[in-house]
């Protein structure tokens, strides 16, 4: 089993100095390799890697192609049985690759992530994936261990291996054959939610996505775009709409219209709180979404065809509204949700 740990870097020298040592220490050997894909950095990242880690493969891209484009170009031609898409601000531990690989083999997962814990608060789950991701009936994402801004204790929760709807892109294991089958990441997303789209497309083709509850990695978060970034707000709102248009079942004008209304309520909330940049980011996200509708309808036809030719896997869908559960019913923990409402 050859596993390539691929780290995408863009002007992240400080993160490389902090986190690459643990990745190299616990990842190279037994057929495993570490690859840094540099997304056109202008700092000293590449020269530092060459000087300090000659056993790390380095691929220089001439431009910043975003998360999706960078990985697509970087992994093109890389021979491996399994890829690990690892953020540059993630700390790993001993035997993490072997243990996740064993879980994938035993559970027949095509993609999988370990539990994602907060580096600053190690007993708490981290925003980007926590203990596995789910999607509610309106296309809102949440995780075991994290619903919106409510986080659960990681020491005593969700340590089992189980199937989920999406796995975190902070540390995403994926079979090379599955990666090739779906054509990698969708570059129209550029960054944010592209790993959810990848997992959704795998499930459209009958594949299984899971979480390895016995392995933890620690994620700093906000390494490229902070949570308070208006660009991140724009990408999240735009990409969530694109994600639904491309993959969701049903008559798309109805569920897209419903989601646009819900987005409008969120934008109004930003406005009332005086967060004008976020308000305009939502408006911009909708305007850009309109320009991409026709190209994504073509992608939707491809995904609908894939669903018809395979055993469409819906495991991990939540048939209720996480918005209503969280804001109106006071449910702050995944464990409090009615498990009978999951597919």
Describe the model.
The protein has 343 residues and is of the alpha/beta class. Helix content is 41%, strand content 18%. Strands 1, 2, 3, 4, 5, 6, 11, 12 and 13 form a nine-stranded mixed sheet that branches. A two-stranded antiparallel sheet has the order 7-8. A two-stranded antiparallel ribbon has the order 9-10. β2, α2 (45-52) and β3 form a beta-alpha-beta unit. α7 (230-247) packs antiparallel against α8 (252-272), α7 packs parallel to α9 and α8 (252-272) packs antiparallel against α9. The chain is globular and about 55 Å long.
Number of strands: 13
Number of continuous helical runs: 10
CATH topology of the largest domain: Spore Coat Polysaccharide Biosynthesis Protein SpsA, Chain A
> Could you estimate the helical fraction of the residues in percent?
40-55%
Whole-number total of structural domains: 2
| CATH architectural category of the largest domain | Alpha-Beta Complex
How is the topology of this model organized?
Blueprint: E1 3-9, H1 13-27, E2 33-39, H2 45-52, E3 57-61, H3 66-75, E4 82-86, E5 90-91, H4 96-107, E6 111-118, E7 133-135, E8 141-143, E9 146-147, E10 150-151, E11 162-164, E12 171-175, H5 176-182, H6 194-204, E13 209-219, H7 230-247, H8 252-272, H9 276-308, H10 322-327
Parallel strand pairs: 1-2, 1-4, 2-3, 6-13
Antiparallel strand pairs: 4-12, 5-13, 6-12, 7-8, 9-10, 11-13
Features:
343 residues; alpha/beta; Spore Coat Polysaccharide Biosynthesis Protein SpsA, Chain A; two-stranded antiparallel sheet; 10 helices
């Amino acid at each position: 089993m050859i596993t390539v740990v691929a780290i995408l870097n863009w002007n992240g020298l400080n993160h490389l100095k902090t986190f690459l040592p643990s990745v190299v220490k616990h990842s190279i050997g037994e057929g495993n390799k570490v690859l840094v894909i540099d997304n056109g950095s202008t700092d000293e990242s590449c020269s530092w890697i060459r000087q300090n880690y000659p056993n790390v493969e380095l691929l220089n891209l001439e431009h910043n192609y975003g998360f999706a484009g960078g990985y697509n170009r970087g992994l093109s031609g890389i021979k491996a049985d399994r890829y690990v898409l690892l953020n540059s601000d993630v700390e790993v531990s001993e035997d993490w690759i072997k243990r996740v690989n064993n879980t994938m083999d035993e559970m027949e997962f095509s993609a999988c992530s370990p539990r994602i814990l907060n580096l600053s608060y190690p007993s708490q789950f981290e925003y980007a994936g926590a203990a596995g991701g789910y999607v509610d009936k309106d296309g809102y994402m949440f995780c075991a261990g994290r619903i919106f801004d409510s986080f659960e204790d990681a020491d005593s929760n969700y340590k089992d291996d189980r199937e989920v709807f999406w796995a975190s892109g902070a540390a995403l294991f994926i079979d090379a054959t599955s990666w090739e089958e779906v054509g990698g990441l969708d570059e129209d997303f550029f960054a944010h939610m592209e790993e959810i789209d990848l997992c959704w497309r795998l499930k459209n083709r009958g594949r299984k996505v899971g979480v390895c509850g016995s392995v933890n990695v620690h994620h700093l978060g906000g390494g490229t775009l902070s949570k308070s970034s208006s660009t991140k707000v724009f990408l999240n709102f735009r990409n969530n709409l694109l994600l639904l248009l491309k993959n969701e079942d049903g008559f798309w004008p109805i569920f897209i219209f419903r989601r646009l209304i819900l987005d409008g309520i969120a934008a109004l909330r930003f406005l009332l709180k005086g967060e004008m940049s976020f308000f305009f980011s939502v408006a911009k996200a909708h305007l850009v979404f309109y320009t991409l509708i026709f190209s994504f309808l073509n992608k939707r036809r491809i995904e609908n065809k894939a669903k018809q030719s395979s055993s469409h896997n819906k495991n991990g869908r939540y048939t209720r509204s996480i918005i209503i559960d969280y804001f109106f019913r006071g449910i702050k923990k995944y464990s409090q949700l009615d498990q009978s409402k999951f597919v």
